[in-house]
Structures are given as C-alpha cells and as structure tokens.
Amino acid sequence: MTTPIAQNAWTSLPYKYWAETSAALHLWTQILGKYRVAHTPWVNHARHSTLHVTPRGMATGPVHEGRGCMSLTLDFVDHVFIAEADSGARAEFPLKKMSVATFYDRAENAVTKIGGTFDIHGAPNELPDATPFAKDTATRPYDADAVRRFHRALLQMVPDFERFRTGFAGKVSPVHFFWGSFDLAVIRFSGRPAPPSPRRYPELARCRGPRGLQP
Question: Which pTM does this prediction carry?
C-alpha cells in the first residue's frame, strides 16, 4: 500500500536515478497531450493542450471528439494506461519497460478499441533531433518506484501552486502539466505585452497534422 503523503516531507527523487525513465515518460505524456490537442478547440496560451494531475496519475480529462467523449490516463498507482469512453468502453495496458514505438502502437490500439480516433501528429515537440514515435524502437526502462515518487511530488506541489495563484487578482492559468516541456505550471499575467519568442525550443512550431492545427 502506498504511504499517504506527508504535508511537510518532500519526496526525494534524484534525477540521475530515474533519468531514462523520465525521458520515456516525457514522450508518453506527449502522446496523450497530442491526442487531446487533436480534438480540442484552441484556447489562448495553449491551455487546451495540457494534462492534469489526478490522485492516481496524469490524465487528459474529457476529450470530446466526433465519436463521443474520451479520456486517457497514465495511472501511476497500478501502473497502467487507461482509455475510457462515455459508451462505457474501456481499454488498458500495463506501463512497463518498452519502446516508445510500442507505447504509441498500444495507445493507438486502445483508443481505437473504445471507439476513438487516434490521429495525432506523430513526432515529439520541444526536443532536439526528435525521433518520430513510431520509429523510436529502443527499449526504455520503467522504474515504477521512481514514477510513484514523481507522482507524489506532483501531488505535493499542486496545492502550493494553487495557493500561489489564489492571491492574484489578474488573469491566472489553472495549475496544469505542460507535456512539451514536461513541467507543472501556473501562470500569472501582468497584462504587459510579452517579448518575442527566442525560438530556442526545437520543433515548437511543428503543429500541422491530419486535423489541422495540433502540436
């Protein structure tokens, strides 16, 4: 059984011990995020594209596509990928050591099985020399304990981010997870014009897919 989160004890997660798992998880979250983008109307600051931290892991939330309402979840408690539809259909597969190509293929099969349409752009964003998901065939590790610790760390950060945003009377984003840069974020807007983008993020502008504008 997972130990309840202590309020004042921050989770230890040295990066060097889970770097390879983190890299794989980053790409998996991109696949979920791209599915959400492919079927969600555009919202300013790309807030329609983000994932959300849940008690069990990370999820797209409801995605309303042509064939119904779907949701994709990375469950970090039981370590499974879950695809669910409003029809009651459900498909899942275990999160474990595998290639990104294998994850991509299994995610596509799960979405199709529940009646969804898996028509995402097939390459990562914001990564240098990114390999398309379907061609990323090297087996990557999956450290379940490190993933559990990562999830616990996110759950510890979310309420602090929420308290940080609540005292600001201006425009504020929700607390959400940006899968391109792989970070939890909350944004406060001053109202001043933003400086031009330095364009230092590889593949940031790659946004054309079979359904039009989508990372």
Answer: 0.85
List, as own/partner pairs, every contact residues 170-176 make where C-beta atoms lie below 8 angstroms and the sequence separation is at least 24, other chains included.
173/45, 173/47, 174/47, 174/50, 175/53, 176/47, 176/50, 176/51, 176/52
Rounded CA-CA distance 22/166 in Å is 30
pLDDT in tens, 120-170: 999 999 888 889 999 999 999 999 999 999 999 999 988 887 787 787 777
> What's the token pair of residue 130?
């990114």
Strand ranges inside the chain, DSSP E: 52-53, 57-59, 63-65, 68-75, 80-85, 90-94, 98-99, 139-140, 176-178, 183-185, 208-209, 212-213
Q: Which residue has the tokens 């059984």?
A: 1
The residue type found at 205 is A
- Give the model confidence (pLDDT) of 8-18 as tens digits: 578 889 999 99
What is the distance between the terminal CA atoms of the chain, rounded to a whole angstrom? 38
Structure tokens, 16: 């060097």
Q: Which of 182, 162, 183, 181 is nearest to 173 (CA)?
A: 162
